[in-house]
Amino acid sequence: MKNLIKFNAERLKKDKFFYVLILSVTLLSILSGFQDTVQGNISSGYEGFIKSYSDIFMSFFIAVYCGYFIGSDFSSKIIQRQISSGISRKDIVISKLIVLMIASFIIVNLYPIIVGIMGSLKYGFLPIKDYNNILEIVRILIISNLCFMSLTSIYSLLGFATQSIGETIGISLAIPVVISMLQGIIPIEFIKKSITFFPLSQIKNVIINKNFIDGTLRPTTISLIVFFIMITITILIFRKSDIN
């Protein structure tokens, strides 16, 4: 397992496509931060930082990289050779997910940091010297990353299930868009509540709700449950799937 993690981490470190995504995130965050600063959509770097975590574009970047990272290993026969050499499918799934989570954390935290810096340059980090907000930043940082961790596990499941770069990216990109649309048009309350279990919905709760139950406990619990369910399903599906 340790060697597999090292192998995948080395791939990530040398992956030019990952750096293209990082550059894209950087440019998008500069543009977004500049727009919010000029238009007055934020009043401080702190506000820009916490609001940026709920931006749906971050899920798109994660979806693209998960699809590419897993799908390219199938198309280049890397996974097939690993299985032939006796490496367990469970270890392959877990090692890839660990490295994909690292990539996701880099992507989703870079965006708020840059937007926060740009807001701070014009308005200061905090409009009022209330450093209790530092604790709020830590809360949002930790729980938002847990939500994105569970989102990464969903995209990884799709990658191993389809074994295709295009299919994984296509389905993954469609998921947050479809869920956002369904929340607005479906009148059935039960379905609306079910949709809130999706990690992106929980990220919004983290930012909007400051009470412990809705803003901390529920998102944390849901994210961890989704994460472990997705890992289990991925391993079960991959164990029984035929490798092309």
Describe the structure in your own words.
- 37% of the residues are buried.
- The chain has 11 helices and no strands.
- α4 packs parallel to α7 (133-162) and α6 runs antiparallel to α11 (212-240).
- By secondary structure, it is mainly alpha-helical.
- The protein has one domain (2-240).
- It has helices at 2-14, 16-39, 45-52, 57-75, 78-84, 89-123, 133-162, 165-185, 189-195, 199-208, 212-240.
List the helices and strands and how they pair.
Layout: H1 2-14, H2 16-39, H3 45-52, H4 57-75, H5 78-84, H6 89-123, H7 133-162, H8 165-185, H9 189-195, H10 199-208, H11 212-240
Count of domains: 1
Tell me, what's the shape?
Answer: globular
Poorly predicted segments: none
Ends: how far apart?
23 Å
Count of alpha/pi helices: 11
Total number of β-strand segments?
0
Secondary-structure-based class equals mainly alpha
The percent range for helix content is over 70%
Mean pLDDT: 81
Main sheet: strands, sense, barrel: none
Tell me the Rg in angstroms: 19 Å
SSE string: HHHHHHHHHHH
